Amino acid sequence: MSQRQLEYDIVIVGSGAGGGTVAKELAPLAARGARIALLEWGGRFDPTRHHSRLELDMAQKYYFDWGGMQTKSKDLTLAFARAVGGSTNVYTGTSLRISQEVLDQWQIPGLTRQDLDPRFQKYERENNVHLSPEQELNDNNKLFRLGCERLGWEVTQFPVNTKNCVGLGTCNLGCAVGAKQGTARVQIPEAEKSGVEVIPWCRVDKVTTHSVEATIIPPLPGFDKGQYVPGPYRMMAKKIILAAGAIHSPLVLERSGFTSPALGRYLTCHPALILVGQHPQSITNVTGHPKSFYSEQFLAKQRFLLESCMYFPFTLAKNLAGYGADLDWLIKRFPQLQMILVLAIDEAEKHNRVLWGRGGKPVVEYRISQQTKRALVQGVRASAQLFFAAGAERVHAPGAGRFLVSRNEAPRLDSIVTEDQFLLGQISIAAAHLMGGCRMGTDPKTSVTDPWGRVHGHRHLYVADASLFPAAAEINPYLSIMAIADRVAQAVREDLGVNS
Amino acid sequence: MAALSVLDELSPNKRAQIERILALMDEYLVFLVPLFSELSMPQQNQARHQLRLFLAQQDGANLRLLTVFLHLMNFWCLVSRRRRFRSLTQVQKDRLIQQFFASPIGLVRKGFWGINTLAKLAVYSQDCVHPLINYHPRPTPKGIS
After folding, report:
1. Residue B144 pLDDT greater than 80, yes or no
2. Do A314 and B121 touch (CB under 8 A)?
3. ipTM, two decimals
4. pLDDT in tens, A399-437
5. Is residue B57 part of a domain?
6. Which residue, A24, A58, A116, A283, could crosslink A187 as a Cys pair with Cβ 3.0–4.6 Å?
7. Residue A153 CB coordination number (10 Å)
8. A281 burial class (0-12, 13-18, 19+ CB within 10 angstroms)?
9. How many domains does chain B have?
10. Which residues in chain A are closer than 8 Å to B133, comparing Cβ atoms?
């Protein structure tokens, strides 16, 4: 099939937290006549038409590889979405500002809270970031807070970006009432009003100097077709902004022949465990926002975070290290289950990387370090303490050598949950937040872009997503992605010689 | 319809490979997720079909790994217990599965994780199991978007 050509001034690749933000920030240029395209591999979701709220159905529609992609070593799974709005469709909307301490470690000139705070404020306002009122918090979340308070641990409520939330509790499967204010609900419609053209079902294969080679793919059944017929396209552009996420942004650059010692490397992902405590009584857990509290009690020294969470039957089952009657017994008590997510803060290491594999599929090489393993084991012990402090009778604690730990064993958790018994490959570990691969910096030997997202040596080409992060964000990252993408949009405007 | 077209597009070889995995999985499904036996026959068939759809998305290398590992499980059962898995007592089954689950060899643990996850996917991903596990999400209200 012959390649068709389309002419633009600016092409943005990917429409998640980064791409959606850049599209809105550059939209005033479109209003003045610039031709801007926002390309998205996935489709445009309509809350009323496309959300069955069934796990596998939504996983197939939203996620690459049904959300079950594994690293090469097969001890870590990665889930990342393709859809207009990207992963902002399937997060819980928790909206935190990256800390100055983390920015200090990143050592990116000019990237400070002073620079980012006005940008954070803008997106907190646009995306309706707020604290949910007490009456909207369910028992699962309140028990997390109660456990922390009883133990004397720090606990903080998550600001969230919902509007008219009805508490369906299935945020990670996409919001069936459109309550979550991700880029698909806020920034992209705003960009479209000004004339930015959104092109769904568009997979980008390569970028070259001033052009993007892409393929329009047929839509999934039940979705509307895009405006272009399927086939190969070349999109000409003066400026190209890659915002395809920590897996695909580096891969597009790699396939396009870009070479950099840092390209695809220094991947971090906040390796995570889902843990469960069983209470003697039923609690409200599957209705209401699933994620209201977090604790940074162990962030500085033990390098893990604890967050309240609630998942669905298969996701839960997959993440429990066990099988058979024990597993059934616990899952049948779903109304009694409290859940906690442990997020390890992983170091940015050069050997952790993404690359193309045979058959044109991404391969992620990621080694779970001894430090990460230790953080996860300590996170399991801390979570078990929290569950028991909140009143749980039994806890599923991977690394305990048995499926459940009882309340009367609580004083001996340190000797029960051990690193020796925490066996990789047995325990389900999931990548919570993918970051790095096109890290920003000043030295082309250790970074892919400059501090403003410009690819070193290529002034027409930018990156604007979590792949820019030089190391882990140490919090749920979407608001930080938006703020940093906002900086990239500023650089694009400045390079074009326009102010706003 | 979507599901049908995915399966229709498979090569005869891949289809045969998937059916082989499903047949091998049947040996272990009820033990790994006993809830499977509480499903009606059409629900059990639906569970197998769900697996079929998932496997259809996997590449040949992954399917080969799954097939090899299931054969390895059968072989180890025959060598160590001199009987097929389905003929073992519950206690014998548990001991055997524990050898895979907690194996000192990482590759064996990862292989078993794959089989165990497939079994969980077949059963717990079905909405028909929701009443059996007392999972009652709030219904989606009409007319909100």
Report:
1. no
2. yes
3. 0.94
4. 999 999 999 999 999 999 999 999 999 999 999 999 999
5. yes
6. A24
7. 18
8. exposed
9. 1
10. 313, 331-332, 334
